[in-house]
Design goal:
about 25% helix, 12-stranded antiparallel sheet, alpha/beta
Length: about 950
């Protein structure tokens, strides 16, 4: 048997001949609903500005969709009654000619109380329309029973921006087969939660203003006089305007808005004492009948207005409310626009411009622009509203553009792209080719692919995978730890920038992602620090909360890093920092340059990464990446107006400066214990067991070569090209392969991801193709030199190690005698490839653990002098051990490993070493380096050699807080 709406559907006339009919906004919305019903089943979202006839479209929808039984969800009892009356009488639709005057009305039931039983739900079957609030019918509420799924075939939601709330969602989801139409003026929320469905129609606020359905609105700033409170200033100003409007024949009413009952009572008394306005307090505690009586008094003119505690904010049709006193303005743009819309209605006689009274300086949020002096609400309200709705539409369209290549359901959880809210963090690379999104995704070994989805529209790909590992504390495989991970790739075609957002931030992960999408001959280059720093143009007048300063270069000795924090951390940067340190990471915030009313944070690192402290949907993250790309493309220098501008970021080079004294492994090697396999040998070797030796390339094909050395034997040679951010190629020796959780790779590829640090004689550094010039150091403190007279009488200074030459000791044997005389608790001889130092002496006292390391080199000539090559050779040794200076646990781990091989204890043992090093957890760790070079004569040393050791001393002290000592000949 046809339902009421099915029988009367054809009696709807959207273009009646002798009546006013629907406005343009209502006609467009109705047509969109009809269209949606013919080809889609998802929720239809209708966006109509407040006052443009949303309720009438809601009422006609059951006829247009030929509903069997309709459920209407409203936000409040007051709105519930208004909508129920509208269906009971159909007065509005009949007066417009949409429905014929003689048409009977549907049977309407208002749910008042809770639907506690299935019988309560079934009793609704005799009604054509049921109107309820979520608090009366949502199954998420304990007292309410689960309804029959087929009870309603149409669900209408008024003020649908509430639908993400649990009570709304549970009630809507209780009817999975029902069509759903959602009506709102603001399809966005301050908490960024999304409304379900898609926007099928949007009538912009600008259109509503242009066609006169949205009235004039005006902001009236209230400026307290000296000694006057803000509340009294607002009250006096609105009273003057009310009386002036009345004298002009305008029939206006006042609303005094605040956010708590206590403030409401306080303001009601203030207006009673300080003004002649007749106001009535209304709070959420008042009954529906009480509120309805107040509305009746307002209509009759018995009251001039109301003091409202978050009431009348939405859904109530009372066009004579024209004057709003905002003692507690809404911070949310969505709620503010809803609120303004109540006052902008034009469907009554004798009304004029809506006016809003507030103290400007008290507002500081996303609505800040509205409350500035001179703000033109005619333009601002429309622009703010329309921009946010356009953004919401773009987000929805962006999400809809993703197509799943693979998706796995996880324990009844349907993983979809619109459920993912990435943190705003990205690695940025320059690459002139778009990625191959059709290639197999990068999924680390022992991981399971859960989602692989690509958007050709957004030039983006999202991959979600799961890693399962056995807990370290468990011997058996009975339990596993599950970690869900993802990465998101976006390519910005115009700039050629590739953005990678990965939960795992290691360079190895980024490299494997790139490797999965590009051929081997295509190079993806990280941005230099200057280029990445262009992103700061996104923030107006940034304030810096976290500032990193490097004593050396990125990627090398992380102990040289200093971090300053605070609300204005940049002010702590002094002239010494500017002259001796390099800029590291920066994190700060300020007003968005794109939208000055919004606060925004930004972080930028020297390793071509950027982040902002927020989570959002994927299209919003991509919009942020595109903003980054726009600023990075602009080569104009960035000026922040702070001391940050004076910090050097290094410079890009294409040739390696001379002279070079040493190279060292990236810090990643020490922290992650990287291993390699050489050629066909299956044995896994610790990378730190090998030395790195930097040389010039005799062929000129490469900027420099790096030798992998073991016990003075060259195992492999790698060439570095500085024209492409230090791309690396293995040019000699067996292939060196590396294993990691990501799979197998090569050492050459690893060097491109984690660049070794190359040191010059003045301890300037080159990392990748960035040169970090060390500032001029002070002269060498000659008190650091210990003149060893025995070098002349007892030592063969040309013999670094080995048996005596006649009666003369080798340099090592001499050093060993001197270290033994110190009576250290532990003395280790560690001379071989990958050494910490030649000698390591460790002693424990009451409050300190002292570690002394000796690096020894033989003279290049039988007589001591001032040969610069001798200086370079010994000075370059310090880079081998500096990373242990503030990491005693890592040092202990390394020494235990070394002494289990060919390094030996001269005194002490492994248990003793471990016991003493554990004491560093509660005792000070004093780390000191000794450079032994008998080929240098303290008395003959010239300025060139002295400057080499001054630079070495300065560099050691910056990393260990203690300068080195130098053992030279007289």
């Amino acid at each position: 048997m046809p339902s009421y709406f099915q029988k009367n559907a054809r009696k709807v006339d959207l273009l009646p001949a002798d009546y006013d009919g629907f406005r343009n906004s209502q006609l467009g919305a109705s047509a969109a609903l009809i269209s949606h019903a013919t080809n889609a089943n998802d929720e239809a979202v209708i966006v109509l500005p407040t006052g443009t006839g949303k309720t009438a479209v809601l009422q006609v929808t059951p006829y247009l969709w030929q509903a069997r039984r309709t459920l209407v969800i409203t936000p409040s009892k007051l709105v519930r009654e208004q909508i129920a009356d509208g269906f009971r009488e159909l007065g509005l639709l009949k007066s417009l000619g949409i429905l014929p005057n003689g048409l009977g009305c549907p049977s309407v039931h208002v749910v008042d109380g809770h639907l506690r039983t299935l019988a309560d739900w079934n009793a609704l079957k005799k009604s054509d329309v049921v109107v309820t609030t979520p608090m009366s019918a949502s199954p998420s509420i304990k007292e309410i029973a689960q309804p029959p799924e087929q009870l309603f075939d149409l669900v209408l939601v008024d003020e649908a921006h509430h639908t993400p709330a649990t009570s709304y969602a549970a009630l809507m989801n209780a009817f999975p087969n029902a069509r759903k139409a959602l009506f709102t003026a603001t399809p966005f929320r301050r908490d960024r939660k999304r409304l379900p469905g898609r926007i099928v129609y949007n009538y912009s606020l600008k259109q509503a203003i242009d066609d006169g359905t949205y009235g004039e609105v005006q902001f009236v700033p209230c400026n307290p006089t000296e000694g006057q409170s803000a509340d009294i200033a607002i009250a006096k100003s609105i009273e003057d305007t009310f009386l002036s409007d009345r004298k002009a024949g305008l029939d206006h009413r006042v609303m005094v808005r605040t956010d708590s009952k206590a403030r409401g009572k306080e303001l009601a008394k203030l207006y009673s004492d300080k003004t002649k306005l007749r106001l009535q307090l209304v709070t959420g505690d008042h009954s529906l009948s009480h509120v309805q009586r107040i509305i009746k008094h307002l209509n009759a003119g018995d009251l001039d207005g109301i003091v409202c505690v978050d009431m009348f904010a939405e859904g109530v049709d009372f066009p004579r409310l024209k004057l709003a006193a905002l003692h507690s303005p809404h911070k949310s743009l969505a709620v503010t626009l809803q609120f303004i819309g109540r006052f902008a209605r034009t469907n009554a006689d004798g009304i004029g411009t809506a006016k809003f009274f507030a103290v400007p300086q008290e507002i500081n949020d996303e609505v800040q622009l509205l409350y500035q002096f001179g703000a033109s609400w005619e333009d601002l309200v429309a622009n703010l509203s329309d921009a946010r709705i356009e953004q919401e539409q773009a987000i929805r369209e962006g999400l809809a553009s993703f197509e799943d290549d693979q998706r796995k359901s996880l324990e009844e959880v349907d993983l979809t792209v619109d459920a993912i809210r990435p943190y705003f963090h990205t690695k940025i690379l320059k690459v002139n080719e778009p990625p191959d999104f059709d290639a197999a995704p990068m999924v680390p070994r022992d991981c399971e692919l859960l989602l692989d989805s690509t958007s050709q529209v957004l030039n983006s790909r999202i991959v979600v995978y799961q890693r399962q590992t056995k807990p370290k504390w468990l011997e058996v495989e009975a339990l596993v730890d599950r970690k869900n991970l993802f990465y998101l790739v976006h390519y910005h075609q115009k700039s050629g920038l590739l953005f990678i957002n990965s939960v795992e931030h290691s360079n190895e992960v980024y490299d494997r992602i790139i490797e999965s999408m590009y051929d081997e001959d295509i190079v993806a280059l990280p941005l230099d620090h200057d280029m990445a720093s262009r992103a700061w143009r996104m923030i107006q007048r940034p304030k810096f909360y976290n500032v990193g300063l490097r004593n050396g270069a990125p990627g090398s000795q992380d102990e040289s890093y200093r971090t300053m924090t605070g609300s204005s951390a940049d002010r702590n940067v002094n002239q010494t920092d500017i002259s001796s340190r390099f800029r590291g990471h920066l994190f700060g915030g300020g007003e968005s340059r794109e939208n000055g009313s919004q606060k925004e944070t930004l972080g930028v690192t020297a390793s071509s990464k950027a982040w902002s402290n927020r989570y959002a949907l994927i299209p919003e993250f991509i919009q942020w990446c595109e903003r980054l790309a726009k600023e990075i493309e602009d080569a104009q220098p960035v000026v922040t107006g702070s001391r940050i501008d004076q910090l050097s970021t290094g410079k890009t080079i294409t040739e390696l400066p001379n002279p070079v004294v040493a190279a060292t492994w990236p810090m990643d090697v020490f922290t992650n214990m990287r291993t390699i396999r050489i050629g066909n040998d299956p044995a896994e070797r610790d990378l730190t067991e090998f030395d790195l030796e930097v040389t010039s390339d005799p062929t000129g094909e490469h900027a420099y070569e790096l030798n992998l050395v073991e016990d003075a034997n060259i195992i492999a040679t790698f060439g570095f090209d500085l024209n492409h951010s230090a791309t690396c190629t293995q040019i000699l020796g067996p292939v060196c392969r590396m294993e990691s959780s990501m799979g197998e790779g090569t050492l050459a590829r690893y060097f491109q991801v984690e660049n070794p640090a190359v040191f010059l004689a003045d301890f300037s550094q080159v990392v990748g193709n960035r040169f970090f010039k060390r500032q001029n150091t002070i002269r060498l403190d000659r008190n650091l030199i210990q003149v060893q007279s025995r070098f002349e009488s007892d030592v063969d200074i040309t013999k670094e190690f080995g048996p005596k030459t006649g009666n003369r000791l080798s340099v090592h044997d001499f050093t060993e005698q001197e270290f033994k005389a110190m009576k250290a608790d532990v003395l280790i001889y560690d001379h071989r490839s990958g050494e910490v130092a030649d000698y390591v002496a460790i002693s424990e006292a009451d409050d300190v653990v002292t570690c002394r390391l000796a690096h020894c080199k033989a003279s290049g000539s039988p007589k001591a002098g001032c040969r610069v090559d001798d200086a370079y050779e010994i000075a370059g040794q310090i880079v081998k051990c500096l990373h242990y200076g503030r990491q005693p646990a890592l040092l202990c781990q390394k020494l235990v490993s070394r002494t289990s091989g060919n390094s030996k204890f001269i005194t002490g043992s492994t248990p003793k070493l471990e016991r003493i090093m554990r004491a560093t957890e509660r005792k000070r760790f004093d780390f000191r380096i000794c450079l032994v070079q008998p080929g240098i004569s303290a008395s003959k040393m010239n300025n060139q050699v002295s400057d080499v050791f001054a630079a070495a001393s300065d560099y050691v002290q910056a990393h260990t807080d203690a300068p080195p000592s130098f053992w030279f000949s007289p």
